[in-house]
Fold this sequence. Notes:
two-stranded antiparallel sheet; 5 helices; 8 strands
Amino acid sequence: xxxxxxxxxxxxxxxxxxxxxxxxxxxxxxxxxxxxxxxxxxxxxxxxxxxxxxxxxxxxxxxxxxxxxxxxxxxxxxxxxxxxxxxxxxxxxxxxxxxxxxxxxxxxxxxxxxxxxxxx
Length: 120
């Protein structure tokens, strides 16, 4: 839908920073999700990127899956996710199991020097 152009899924044809740049150039808007019940409204926006500001380990996978199915990129505020350790293992879980596209954080100790291979 939003990340598609001429029938092409931009999630698989454009990688990494190029994908983020593409999304922001097309629509320079980032929506944020504070509560899970706001998700339908967030998915209905024209934004290509969603910042998940607050959720927990039980909800994150479902939220990320719905965002991905809507053709949007998901970034999680690492410091505000409940139930996930604020360490390298927590980052790995979010990337490999939850399938996020990236993280937002005010504390870089868990991500400094970490090469990311986001599972999207």
